[in-house]
Amino acid sequence: MNTALGVGFNVLAFTVGALVYFWEARRRNMNLSKMREVAMLGALIGVVAASVGQWGYAVFSGSHSVGGGRTIVAGVLGGWLGVEIAKRRLGIRESTGPLWALALPAGEAIGRIGCWFHGCCYGKVCSLPWAINGRHPTQFYLSIAAMASFGLIWWLKDRVDVFALSLLLWSIGRIIIEPLRESSTPTPWLVPSICVVVATYATIRLVRSKQVV
Asked: Which SS3 state, helix, strand or coil, does residue 185 take?
């Protein structure tokens, strides 16, 4: 556990995510000033929702600890709400989904390395050859899944509904990896259930757009 390195990777994750977000906004000729306000409000509400979500989960699961890490499921949903509030306030009608579709996995790929150094989000006990300290290195599983998602979304960024695709890929990754995480032991059904709902929504959205990969 190295808190300083963990914080460093967290800062780098936010920085890279922001750079990708604004690069894509510029590439799409979007108003950068408005996009900045959308990003700020989305990130703020996302962080608050993640913190509240983690506290709620700790209470629900009977854990006495609410520190360490953030629950990304609540953070994503809260951030989504924050973005929609900001767009309505600023009168933005164009979709900002393509920006987040690239920015979020780019940031998560780095941020999960921060989880490793913080000592959070670790996996269950296992005896596989790649186990670290006798556990699944789920932080790296999630990082690799995010990198793979970013690569595929980048490749298809002008050909499909990338926001729906990003939701689908993220949900599939969490459904596969979540059962291997120690934190899922009290409620193994919770995150996968949420992800099934999100994946269903994303699939319907892709089918309706007639842009299924």
From this structure: coil
In the numeric block, which tokens belong to residue 163? 């926001």
- Alpha-carbon gap, residue 10 to 195, rounded angstroms: 24
SS3 state at 62: coil
pLDDT in tens, 123-146: 999 999 999 999 999 999 999 999
Q: How far apart are CA 29 and CA 125, in angstroms?
A: 48
Structure tokens at 58: 């700790």
The one-letter amino acid code at 3 reads T
- Angle made by CA atoms 34, 36, 39, in degrees to the nearest 5: 115
Residues in the chain: 213
Cβ-proximal residues to 178 (8 Å cutoff; 6+ apart), any chain: 184, 188, 191, 192, 195
DSSP code, position 63: -
